[in-house]
Design a protein that fits this description.
Helix content is 11%, strand content 25%. The longest helix is centred in the middle third of the chain and has 8 residues. The chain has one domain.
Amino acid sequence: MYICAVKIIISTSIAGDWRRPQNRNLWQGVNGVNNPCPIGWRIATEQEWKNEGLTSMNDAFTKLKLTYTGARDVTSGEIKSMATLGMYWTSTVHDDQLVHSYYTRIEATTVTQSINNRGNGYPCRCIKD
């Protein structure tokens, strides 16, 4: 096992975002500002995740080769649920909240979409545009 010493950015603000001022348009499309994907790729939207029709972790692995990922907590930096949850950000921001974005949550027998503070560490799944 390899363990590295890293400085994790945590948020103690009520906003729970990774930047100030907040920016709702960082991952929007291939040419989005700060798009974390390689050239020609982008983060999938909430609707694109829904269109996959995923119902369980087995289904998610079979269709998209997704695995359990766990998540990094925004306030403590702690990595949680690595063996029980797959959490993937979408590029869709919540209409009413500057700091909330949608994510896809994959468990053994369920797949749901919800919102959370963007400061939480979830992996991103890039798709070719």
